[in-house]
């Protein structure tokens, strides 16, 4: 059996999921190389900041929509069978106000909040909420069963699953993507590098993708537990501000979001925005606090900021030959890195097979 020498560059959800699926083929010898690993907290490392949930944003028939559709069965499987993964089912209500249609968050959530979205046949329990049950100012709303992922549990779980299948992990910072090809734990030059560097692909040598943008997401993590997930298409507090809540399973606290601030690199939580987020979340989900209380009824664990790696044409999952090295890219997942993770990693497998078949053909 020939051996395939593979380096995965990046240990966020994209790199770990790619490594995990690649590791199911025993012919693949994999090293994951990264500046940040699960357990690290850094604004350059997006994955620990995500909620994370499954609220599809891709248009019907788009590549993103297909990746999100392909990911649901995996998350459903984990929620049903793997309590150690930190993924649990959770009821989600998404509300739309027609006046948000042309706002940043209205466009972001346009597919999600459609009355008859493509995902209605994918997730369980999809239903339109009858108009007489809508909150004041809300024009329509959908309910379905989503999942919430406790990323503080899930990222180490992905790493441990990789380790069980022989994947090696190494800390390193590379300045050019092909430098990763010579960092495999075996000392051999890699047959290919899987580039999962998220927003850093903007400046990584050999990639330099200037169509990437940071989309700043600020959140508050609280101990209060409303037991369900909520989102609305916009706010009256200005473009780029949003409102959503979800309860991380296994004691992970409740995420209060948020913001969707394009090209804003500020890593520090804005205290005024934090107050607006908390107020809006209570308005959206009153059961967050005891009846009659406002933000004083919230028990805050921490404030945080993450930068979503948004790419203008959507995630880049494609192969490219750079000099004599093959690279399979998997970056640019905006606010959908978890909910598209398995779909994208399956495409990485297909592209990897194409690259390796050329190698094996040349070796004949
Ligand atoms: P990252 O997690 O940023 O990982 C990049 C990796 O590459 C790191 O290991 C880093 O160290 C490494 N790296 C980079 N450059 C180098 C280098 N030069 N050398 C070595 N290593 C390098 N998504 C959802 O699906 N659902 C949600 O509910 C959701 N909520 C979100 C809420 C917020 C507030 C935010 C900020 C994001 C949210 N997202 C959500 C989006 C999701 O978090 C991202 O799409 C995802 O984490 C991107 O993962 P990644 O692995 O591509 O990048």
From TrEMBL:
Binding site for FAD: 177, 197
Domain FAD dependent oxidoreductase, residue spans: 6-350
PROSITE patterns: DAO
GO terms under biological process: D-amino acid catabolic process
Organism of origin: Penicillium brasilianum
Obligatory cofactor(s): FAD
Molecular function GO terms recorded: D-amino-acid oxidase activity; FAD binding
Signal sequence residues: 1-19
Annotated positions binding D-dopa: 335
Assigned GO CC terms: cytoplasm
Top-level taxon of the source organism: Eukaryota
UniProt keyword annotation of Oxidoreductase present: yes
UniProt-recorded name of the protein: FAD dependent oxidoreductase domain-containing protein
UniProt keyword terms in alphabetical order: FAD, Flavoprotein, Oxidoreductase, Signal
Family: Belongs to the DAMOX/DASOX family.
Keyword Lyase recorded: no
